[in-house]
Amino acid sequence: MSRTFVGWPAFPRAAEHATRDEQLRANVRRATHTIRAKRDALVAERPDWEHLRDAAAALKDDVLAHLDTYLEQLEERVTAAGGTVHWAADAAEANRIVTALVRETGETEIVKVKSMLTEEIGLDSALEEAGISARETDLAATIVQLGDDLPSHVVVPALHRNRTEIRDIFVREMGKHGRPAPDGLTDDPAELAEAARLHLREKFLQAKVAVSGANFMVAETGTLCVVESEGNGRMCLTLADTLISVVGIEKVVPTWRDLEIYLQMLARSATGERMAPYTTTWTGVTDGDGPRAFHLVLVDNGRTRALADPVGRQALRCIRCGACMNICPVYERTGGHAYGSVYPGPIGAILNPLLKGPDDPQTASLPYASTLCGACNDVCPVRIRFTDVLLELRSDIAEGDARVKHPAEKAALKAVEQVMAHSPLWNAAVKAAGKAGVLLPPHRKLPGPLHGWTDSRALPDIPKESFRTWWKRTDGGTKDGDTE
To answer: Most buried in the list 203, 320, 323, 449, measured by CB within 10 Å?
Structure first.
């Protein structure tokens, strides 16, 4: 059974475990520092980079403000080009639609283009339950699948693995799913890539059905676009008889010309390349060229929830470049799995709570998985203000009625609120705290259920005298040698 993030522990627990893994931390640090150095060099080549960011953000905001109009236009154009459009409100409905479409073809093994959305909805597991094997074709996604692993980065899903680990996975697992790894395979990158190429070519040539996502959808023409580095996606998109594209509703752009902005930014931000080696576009079906049937499954799965948040909706601008992960000091130390989602790093810390709501314990912890250093704000090509959204989400959790709060915590905070609103009570509480401070143990840990607060915080000294008492005693600070 394909692994999923269902039941993953909350970020604090997962991060505590991940930060103890020295090999993981070394792998992640090496990869993220390499990518971001390449990104910085190529961004510096563009004197208009900040103008591109402005344009990309403004265009995305226009799309989000008129999303219904653009989606209706997209459906009309895709249908006119010979495709079929399906609408899915959530993951379960999307999985039912895709499973039914594959079953109609009679095929039991399909190929897939790397897609974060299909990971988000758990499509591979749903297909597996229906007796359908979905084989990943992206090199990194293949490594993750063969290793019975989970993705840890939106661009490089196997970023947490080093070459030796990948070689071991290929040798151990490839033969169970098709062509085995060559004898004597080493961890040389060229040899690993060739082993994957030979293994996957059988899949491309045999598969009649392919599933993809899309980086962008053009409302004006009904065109979909996939950006990749290897060409494996293009093999899926052109060789299969039936193509099923599963795409989030926020991926639409108004016109063909609008692609120009994002294609100049995506590869630079994602992998430090001027342009991705493979940019594939397709519009419906064409006789004698490509798939004979095309289905587009448009998925909401919480996106309209995020759209309704006036601050959080900017997360839907995201073009999945991963630049925020590559710069994040928290991600660098924990890796992606600690976030418990296919979307890790700063974008995961804001997007997952927006998509799922505040009542899931794993999701509710994510807005705190940040130092608020703002580095993610600086590198985001579509100018998402991560820190603004993180602070809003923290406020929602702290001041709202999220069910993740412990009943005792809610009661305690309510009691503090009432005491602080009543001046005589507050003054009495402050005096009592000063007297109680001397009774605290030397290691300054709070007793009983309160210890959780001091396990990760240094409890400050509690003064015996409050500021108000001192002020009154000294007539506003003018006694005892003080001067105005």
So the answer is: 323
